[in-house]
Amino acid sequence: MKALVSLHKTEEPHVCLVLVDIEKKEIERTFTFNDFIDSKHFEREDGLKGIRGITWDNDDNFYFATYDKVIKTNFDLRNQEIIFNGIDIHQIDWIKTTSGVEGLGICNTNQNSVIFHMLDDVAMLHIGLDGLVEDANHICSLFYNNGHCYFVYHNHLRGGWIVRSDDQKIYTGNLFQPHNIYVSNNEEIMLICNSRYNSVVKVSDKNDKEELMLSAYTRGLALSPEGNMLVGESNRSSIPSISIIDYHSFRRIDQIVLTEIDDRIQGEIFDIRLLENDLCMSKTMIKLN
Predict the structure, then answer these.
(1) Which residues lie closer than 8 Å to 7 by C-beta, 6 or more apart?
(2) pLDDT for residue 220
(3) What are the structural domains, with CATH classification, of the chain?
(4) Preceding amide of 13 cis, omega within 30
(5) Residue 124 clears pLDDT 70, i.e. is over it
């Protein structure tokens, strides 16, 4: 099981992308800013450098988001093309709708919206419940399954919650700065990083709620068909690590501290993707037993 991990709020020559062998607890490859063709993608006066959302399509095109750009490339990082300019971009995900249309879902967080970027067109996939108001809901994550698109919200007045875009149905609430989401077929199970509480939450369709407390801000969620969950833990005062959690027992079974393997790996984890069969990637429609 191999995972790709993105890191943000890091400085040169630190690493912004890591390929991790989870079973061996080894770093297979690291990518620094200098590995990318155009370093201007990462220029920020306030030092908020790095990679945020990551995903890929069925043609092995790799997409990554910086603070204000989404860039299309391939896995050797050649032929980089800026395909979208936004503000405070968070998660991105390759979506294949029930009608067969494929494109990139982009959380354009500061603009309180989610964009659907197709090959030759750009459409609005979702507008926040408060309209196109600057960062009104901090829409930071999305997930598409069975014809429904789900978004993670955080509003400073109403807290955090999950909303389904087609009917504005609101699911679980009482979350604080949530990120990342997985929704199983028929909405039987939802997984959410309850980030500010340093936890991950599992909610069933019977409104049963389990919460597993971890040690740092949780962001980045991946899930294998065998039931191995990977959750990123990091903040400004802690070193980045990955917790390995058994989906069924909902207990942490191991942890990988990335900085102990390579001290160049610093900053905050933004996204985690399994290279094969990641159920948290919308294009993978596999039911977890």
Answers:
(1) 14, 15, 16, 17, 18, 50, 51, 240, 265, 266, 267, 268, 269, 270
(2) 96
(3) 2-274 (2.120.10.30)
(4) yes
(5) yes
